[in-house]
Amino acid sequence: MVNQKLITTIENNLDELAKTWFEEASKSEVMTTYHHFKEEQNFERGKAVYSNLLKWLKEGASHEEVEKYFEKVGAIRLDEGFPLSEVHYALYLSKKIFWGFVDWRDAISGSFQSSTTTQIMAVLNDYFDLGNFYITRGYFNELIAKLDEDRKFSREEIRKLLTQSVMDWDSINDDEIIWRHV
Length: 182
Hints:
Number of strands: 0
Largest sheet: none
CATH class: Mainly Alpha
Helix content: over 70%
Order of helices and strands: HHHHHHH
Structural class: mainly alpha
CATH superfamily: Histidine kinase N-terminal domain
Number of domains: 1
């Protein structure tokens, strides 16, 4: 079972976690697409990750719930025009801020020092790591669905979405590309 002190800490500091994430995201040179959205939207994006973490912990840390939440996030971010690398970085930033927050609180109070610390860390890492996996799956499933609709994207748009210019598309034989669900 996850430490109740941890749940209480997240509950009592949800806005502070979101505010810290928002401030870091606003300054990030990696998260440039986020800079095109309203501040309130981005604050809510940061808060949503921590709110969902809290809900997930309270409800028993089900992998199915993580899957549903993060696949939806991946699909929405694709529709909003985010490169996948930025979405991954946003979740990385959430995890980094979360652990820094918990570590700082623990240094002051000693609240989380116990024999179950490793178990708690494993459960929390599952949330963020599975989040990245399901964001990727949701993102690519949505991309594939859009490609199947009626060839909406040009070759250049697909290249931008998938590679952000890291691949030399001119050297790829078109017959070698097979689209399938992740």
